[in-house]
């Protein structure tokens, strides 16, 4: 029994050290970016030896991934699982309620993941994640294109009485995706206050979707 207790205590201490390392690394990567950050500085600021740091994370990029990949996974999943999200939002009768929920959802991602996302977007040079923004653009463009095709299909089959003001082709999907994501991510670049991020995201989503409803 005592050996089990000792194992549990040691494991808790290891987990605490790992979390402290990740928090410190996040601060350093945010200040300096990946290329200009050093494991020596991270170890010093985390209060651990360099050797101990390397036992937890054998390369700087492994530590960078520990800081940033959960945030990327959250945003990527939100974009990638749009089918389930659309179905859930479609169940809301009032457009205002739909936009409020969508704005809260997207604002929550920015609020929870602000610093890791900023590191990915502006401090990932020299890592495998350097092209992450391009990946998000492509992912969202596929989503936009799917909606364009769906809207066109409904119009052609007479299921939507409101004729779109503009007939879009596939070439418009990427510019729309880029414009939306650039503005969305600009919110966290300019603002750090969580309530401000939530408020601006809801406003941003409302403006976008009020405009798109007139076109699609």
UniProtKB/TrEMBL annotation:
Q: Which GO terms describe its biological process?
A: negative regulation of DNA-templated transcription
Record-given protein name: HTH tetR-type domain-containing protein
Q: Which PROSITE patterns is this protein grouped with?
A: HTH_TETR_2
InterPro entries according to UniProt: Homeodomain-like_sf (IPR009057), HTH-type_TetR-like_transc_reg (IPR050109), HTH_TetR (IPR001647)
Q: Which residues form a coiled coil?
A: none
Q: Name one Pfam family in it.
A: TetR_N
Query: So which domain of life are we looking at?
Result: Bacteria
The species this protein belongs to is: Paenibacillus athensensis
- Give residue ranges for domain HTH tetR-type: 15-75
Report the GO molecular function annotations: DNA-binding transcription factor activity; transcription cis-regulatory region binding
What UniProt keywords apply to this chain's record, in alphabetical order?
DNA-binding, Transcription, Transcription regulation
Q: According to the UniProt record, which residues make up the DNA-binding region? A: 38-57
